[in-house]
C-alpha cells in the first residue's frame, strides 16, 4: 500500500513542556495562536477541522490481525467524525514484521517526521520511544478527555501498555490490543472415545475435558497428555511452543517456565541482572524448557508465531502455547468447535503450583511531531476507539479490548473461543511484561542468542548460558546508568 507522507516541517503548534518526557528536548516549534494546543483542543468550540479533509497514516505489524483491525475499522471512525465534527478523514497503513517494526518507526521519528501519525508499538518499546521525546506523553490528554479515563481490567494492563518508567504515573501509550499466552488444544481429540479409553488405561486417570480441568492441571500432569499424543509414526506430536531466535519468541516462551517456577529476570529498582537471572534454579528451568522439545515436531527450534499456527491448524500437534491475539488464525473454519482454549498448565505441585506467563499485546502511541491537524485527528481517534460500541465491535472482529466495562459484559466470554482464557490470564499476577527500558532491543538480542544457542545444542550448559546473558545485560544497563553496579570480575570469562 502506498503510504501518504505529510510534510515533516512547518508545524504550527508547541506542546507545553510538561507534556513531553521530563528532561527531554522541547520540540522547538512555535505557534501564532495564543493558548497551548492541548487546552485549545478541548475547549467548548466548533471543531477546528470542520469542512476539511485529512489523511492519516498508521504504522503497524505486518500479518498481525489486531494491527490491521485498527485500519479496517477506520471507515467507522470516518463516519463518526463526519457526523459529529463535520470533517473527512482517511487512513493509510504501513507495516513491518515484529523484528523490523521498531527500526522502521525509530528511523522515521528520529527525523521528526510525520510519516506515521499513530503507531502500534510493542509494549517493550515504550521507553525507547518516550525517552527521546518521539511520542506524545498522554497524561494531559487523558485529563482533558473523559472518554479516555477508563477503568482498565487489571493493573497489569496499565503496567504493560501505558506507563514508563515502570512504577510511575507517566503515561505514553493506550492499549490497542491486549494479549496473553493461552494453551490451544484439540477438543475433538480429547473427546474421542478411543483416545479417552486408551489414556485412562495407560495413566489411570481421565483426559481433561473442560476449562476448569485445565485450570487445575500441572505441567507434570500435562506432560503425560503431551507424551500420549506424541506419535511420530503418524506425524502427530503432543505439543509445540516457540523456540525461535527471531525477535522475542524464545524469550516469551521461556519466561513462562522461569517465572512459574519461582525465578526472576532482574530487579527493576536497581537494574541488577547478574545473580538474579543466572541462578541454578533458572538454569534448571531453561533445561526443562528445552526438554519439552521431545514432544514437538522436528524443526521446532525454529518455531515462532507463524510456525505454531501452521502445525496446529494442519493437525500435526495436539496442543500449543500461543497468543490469544491469533485465535482467529488458530481456529480456522475447519477447526471451529474442535478447539478448546485454556490457561497454560501450572508449574509445581499442590498449593505451591503457579502459572505466570508473558504478556503480549500492543499500545497505541502518538507521534509527538504531528502538526496541529493530525494531532487533533489522532486524539479524536483515541476518543472513538474507547467508545463502548467500538470496543465491542473490535472484540467481535477478533480483537482483545482491555477496559473493564467491555470485559465484564455478560456476553463477552461467548464472543470468541479464547475470551474466557484471555480474561483469566489478564488478571493481576497471572501474566507480566518485561523491560520497558530504552535498551530493550540490545538486551533482547543477547538473550535470544543465548537461548537459541542452548535449545539448538550449540551450548550444552544452561547455567553458563545464563551467566553469559546476565553479564552482557548487566554491562548494557551499567553503561546506560540504569544498573547501580557493573558486571562482576567473573563476567570476564563468560562465553557461549
Structural summary, described in words:
The protein is an alpha/beta fold. It folds into two domains: about 15-180 and about 360-430, D-Maltodextrin-Binding Protein, domain 2 (3-Layer(aba) Sandwich); about 180-360, D-Maltodextrin-Binding Protein, domain 2. The chain contains 22 helices and eight strands. Strands 1, 2, 3, 4, 5, 6, 7 and 8 form an eight-stranded mixed beta sheet that branches. Helix 21 runs antiparallel to helix 22. The chain is globular, with a radius of gyration of 24 Å.
Describe this structure in a few short sentences.
The chain has helices at 37-41, 65-72, 74-84, 98-109, 126-130, 139-143, 155-161, 187-191, 193-203, 211-215, 219-228, 249-260, 280-291, 305-313, 327-330, 372-385, 388-396, 404-407, 412-415, 419-426, 440-455, 462-480, and strands at residues 53-61, 88-96, 118-120, 174-186, 319-323, 339-342, 357-366, 431-432.
Amino acid at each position: 500500500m502506498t503510504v501518504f507522507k505529510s510534510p515533516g516541517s512547518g508545524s504550527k503548534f508547541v506542546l507545553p513542556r510538561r507534556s513531553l518526557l521530563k528532561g527531554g528536548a522541547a520540540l522547538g516549534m512555535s505557534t501564532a495562536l495564543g493558548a497551548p494546543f492541548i487546552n485549545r483542543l478541548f475547549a467548548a468550540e466548533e471543531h477546528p477541522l470542520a469542512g476539511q479533509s485529512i489523511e492519516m497514516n498508521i504504522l503497524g505489524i505486518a500479518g498481525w490481525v489486531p494491527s490491521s483491525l485498527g485500519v479496517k475499522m477506520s471507515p467507522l471512525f470516518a463516519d463518526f467524525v463526519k457526523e459529529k465534527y463535520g470533517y473527512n478523514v482517511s487512513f493509510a497503513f504501513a507495516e513491518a514484521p515484529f523484528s523490523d517494526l521498531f527500526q522502521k518507526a525509530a528511523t522515521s521519528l528520529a527525523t521528526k517526521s510525520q510519516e506515521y501519525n499513530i503507531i502500534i508499538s510493542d509494549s517493550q518499546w515504550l521507553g525507547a520511544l518516550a525517552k527521546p521525546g518521539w511520542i506524545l506523553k498522554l497524561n494531559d490528554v487523558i485529563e482533558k478527555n473523559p472518554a479516555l479515563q477508563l477503568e482498565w481490567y487489571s493493573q497489569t494492563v496499565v503496567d504493560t501498555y501505558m506507563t514508563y518508567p515502570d512504577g510511575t504515573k507517566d503515561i505514553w501509550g493506550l492499549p490497542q490490543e491486549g494479549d496473553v499466552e493461552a494453551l490451544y488444544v484439540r477438543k475433538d481429540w480429547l473427546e474421542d472415545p478411543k483416545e479417552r479409553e486408551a489414556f485412562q488405561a495407560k495413566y489411570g486417570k481421565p483426559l481433561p475435558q473442560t476449562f476448569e480441568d485445565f485450570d487445575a492441571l500441572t505441567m507434570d500432569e500435562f506432560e503425560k497428555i503431551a507424551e500420549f499424543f506424541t506419535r511420530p509414526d503418524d506425524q502427530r506430536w503432543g505439543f509445540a511452543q516457540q523456540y525461535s531466535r527471531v525477535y522475542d519468541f524464545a524469550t516469551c516462551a521461556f519466561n513462562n517456565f522461569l517465572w512459574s517456577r519461582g525465578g526472576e529476570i532482574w530487579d527493576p529498582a536497581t537494574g541488577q541482572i547478574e545473580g538474579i537471572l543466572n541462578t541454578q534454579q533458572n538454569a534448571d528451568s531453561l533445561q526443562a524448557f528445552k526438554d519439552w522439545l521431545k514432544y514437538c515436531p522436528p524443526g521446532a527450534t525454529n518455531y515462532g508465531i507463524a510456525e505454531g499456527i501452521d502445525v496446529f491448524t494442519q493437525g500435526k500437534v495436539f496442543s500449543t502455547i500461543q497468543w490469544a491475539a491469533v485465535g482467529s488464525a488458530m481456529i480456522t473454519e475447519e477447526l471451529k468447535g474442535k478447539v478448546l482454549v485454556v490457561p497454560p498448565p501450572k508449574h509445581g505441585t499442590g498449593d505451591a503450583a503457579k502459572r505466570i506467563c508473558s504478556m503480549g499485546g500492543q499500545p497505541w502511541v502518538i507521534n509527538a511531531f504531528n502538526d496541529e491537524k493530525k494531532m487533533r485527528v489522532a486524539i479524536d481517534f483515541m476518543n472513538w476507539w474507547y467508545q463502548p460500541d467500538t470496543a465491542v465491535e473490535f472484540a467481535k472482529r477478533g480483537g482483545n479490548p482491555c477496559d473493564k466495562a467491555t470485559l465484564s459484559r455478560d456476553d463477552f466470554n461467548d464472543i470468541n473461543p479464547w475470551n474466557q482464557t484471555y480474561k483469566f490470564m489478564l488478571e493481576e499476577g497471572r501474566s507480566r511484561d518485561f523491560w520497558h527500558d530504552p535498551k530493550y532491543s540490545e538486551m533482547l538480542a543477547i538473550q535470544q542468542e543465548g537461548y537459541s544457542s542452548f535449545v539448538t545444542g550449540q551450548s550444552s550448559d544452561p547455567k553458563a548460558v545464563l551467566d553469559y546473558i546476565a553479564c552482557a545485560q548487566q554491562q548494557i544497563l551499567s553503561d546506560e546508568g540504569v544498573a547501580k553496579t557493573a558486571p562482576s570480575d567473573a563476567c570476564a570469562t563468560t562465553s557461549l
